[in-house]
Amino acid sequence: MSGARQCVILVGGKGTRLGALTKDTPKPLLPVGGRPFLSYLIQEAARHGSERILLLAGFKAEAFANELDVLRAAVPAAVELKVLAEPEPLGTGGALKFAAPHLDEHFLLLNGDSFFDINLLDLAAPPLPEASVGRLALKPEVDVSRYGTVGLKGENVTTFAEKNSAGGPGLINGGIYWFNRSLLNHFGNGFVSLETEVLPKLAIAGRLLGKVYDRFMLDIGLPYSLEQAQTSVPAQMRRPAVFLDRDGVINRDVGYAHRPDQIVWVDGALAAIKTFNDAGFYVFVVSNQAGVARGYYTEADVMALHRWMAAQMAAAGAHADAFAYCPFHPDGTVAAYAKASPHRKPAPGMILDLLKTWPVAKDQSFLIGDRAHDIEAAAAAGLPGYLFEGHDLSAFIESRLGMPAR
Ligand SMILES: [Mg+2]
Fold first, then answer.
1. DSSP at 111
2. Which of 117, 122, 245, 374 is catalytic?
3. Which domain holds residue 274?
4. CA within 20 to 30 Å of 76's CA: 44, 102, 354, 358, which one?
5. Pick the catalytic residue: 113, 117, 122, 247?
6. Which burial class, exposed, middle or buried, applies to 143 when counting CB atoms under 10 A from its CB (0-12, 13-18, 19+)?
7. How many A from CA of 372 to the centre of ligand 1?
8. Judgement on whether residues 220 and 250 belong to the same structural domain of the protein
9. 19 band by pLDDT with thresholds 50, 70 and 90
């Protein structure tokens, strides 16, 4: 088991606090920055490696089916996106129980009306101990009077309480959970609220873990926060990016590696990638793969290797948002690939494409490579490049970029 292959999103709420805005439109489908709020959540799940996304709908369930094409456009075509409509209002817990036949052994669960900007794999990668049914993402707040609070001792959730009028600093529920399906054994039938019935009991029973993230969070449940989301959510998506060369930076350069058994991770490489993920960077791998042009292996081999590398990263709580590669070389022996390419480093094509496709904060972005042609490609794309000369990638980003691995 590695990574968060399934992501379930609760989109069944009525959004009563938003008044007329949600009369005909479910809250997660309200436009934020010109597209449905839900499309951001789906995109976040997909870039962290979710292959199947399940929307648990209730109120105006047909609206999700109608918007499915718009939502699908936000993620790669290979990601499966499905809507499951509850037959009657069942509450957040009841909706999950209704979805039971569709749930993986472990799944991510997101509230569909809030966005908490965390590394989802940091929550999902560490195995859950036998005694725990889930791990909750928690947010520190200076004044919790608007919220319910969560008590945490070490990594154990001790209390999960409804709104606490006392106020003051504390931890609140971030609306992102990593659950084992055995959670469902703790539900009754019919209407069940996860937040007011199930989680408080499980907290007292010592069956929940929690992890604190001091990261951007916003819920769109109130008119002013929905208004705020119009600019803050798109702004949050504009992230710095790190472009990583592959051979010699994340795996040892053995020359034309194309099979998993040829991959030896550079020391500290997975931890370094996770450090970038935790800090909210996009991580892009940009790799010359002239071995395709030379007939040593095929593009299918390259892609299969990248899928394997992605799974290894996920098990370490890390991910790359894209693996770009250039299969061309002017001296190639395979006719289709025997040519110069604007994507082959030192040309900047791979980097420029990624800058075009993703909302990157370019002024905070950079490349790490182990050869002059990597640094030249970065410069040609208008980015700083750092030359990594081997040893430990975590130690390198700590000393050169001031980014210690946690
Ligand atoms: Mg290299």
1. E
2. 245
3. 241-401
4. 102
5. 247
6. exposed
7. 9
8. no
9. confident
Residue 69 designated active-site: no
Active site residue 247: yes
For residue 1, pLDDT beyond 50: no
CA of 369 to the centre of ligand 1 (A): 6
- Mean pLDDT computed over 161-186: 90
Pairing, β 156-163 against β 148-153: antiparallel
**Mean of pLDDT over the chain:** 95
Domain boundary pick from 171, 205, 237:
237
- Mean pLDDT value across residues 308-330: 98
pLDDT digits (tens, 9 = 90+) for 260-302: 999 999 999 999 999 999 999 999 999 999 999 999 999 999 9
Decide if 114 contacts 219 (C-beta within 8 A): yes
251 falls in which pLDDT band (50, 70, 90)? very high
User: Are residues 220 and 354 located together in one domain of the fold?
Assistant: no
pLDDT > 70? residue 154: yes
Q: Are residues 55 and 166 in the same domain?
A: yes
**Angle in degrees, 0-180, between the axes of helices 393-401 and 269-278, rounded to the nearest 10:** 50
Distance 24 CA to ligand 1 centre (A): 54
- Helical (H) or strand (E) element with 109: strand 106-111
Distance 389 CA to ligand 1 centre (A): 10
How far apart are alpha carbons 379 and 372 in whole angstroms? 11
Ligand 1 center–CA 247 separation, angstroms: 4
Claim to verify: residue 117 and residue 166 sit in the same structural domain = yes
Distance from the alpha carbon of residue 396 to the mean position of ligand 1, in angstroms? 16
Residue 329 belongs to some domain of the structure: yes
- Helical H segments across 48-190, by residue range: 61-66, 68-72, 91-98, 120-124
Please give the share of the chain, as a percent, with pLDDT higher than 90.
89
CB distance 344 to 329 below 8 Å: yes
What amino acid is encoded at 159 in this protein?
T
Query: Which residues line ion ligand 1, judged by CB < 5 Å?
Result: 245, 247-248, 370
